[in-house]
Amino acid sequence: MLRPRRKKKDVPGGLFVKCDGCGEMVYRRNVQERLQICPECNYHFRIGARERVRLHTDEGSFDERDADMAACDPLHFVAAKAYADQIKSYMQRTGLNEAAIYGTCRIEDRPAVFAAMDFRFAGGSMGSVVGEKITRAAELALAEGLPLVTTAASGGARMQESAYSLMQMAKTCAALKRLSDAGGAYISIMTHPTTGGVTASWASMGDVIIAEPGALIGFAGRRVIEQTINQELPADFQTAEFLLEHGFLDIIVERGQIKQTLARLIGYLS
Amino acid sequence: MAAETNQSDFAYKFEAPILEVEKRIKHLSERATSRHEDLSAEIEKLERERDRLLEEVFSNLSPYQRVRLARHPMRPQPMDYVRMIFTDFIELRGDRRFGDDRAIVTGLARLDEHEVMVVAQHKGRETREKVAANFGMPRPEGYRKALHKMKLAEKFGFPVVCLIDTPGAAPSLEAEERGQAMAIAENLFTMAGLRVPIVIVITGEGCSGGALGVGVGDRFAMQENAYYSVISPEGCAAILWKDGERAAEAAGAMKLTAADLIEAGIIDAVIPEPIGGAHRDPQRAARELERYLSDVLDELRPVPVGGLLEERYRRYRELGVYRTLPSTEDVESPSV
Question: pTM for this structure?
Answer without folding.
Answer: 0.94
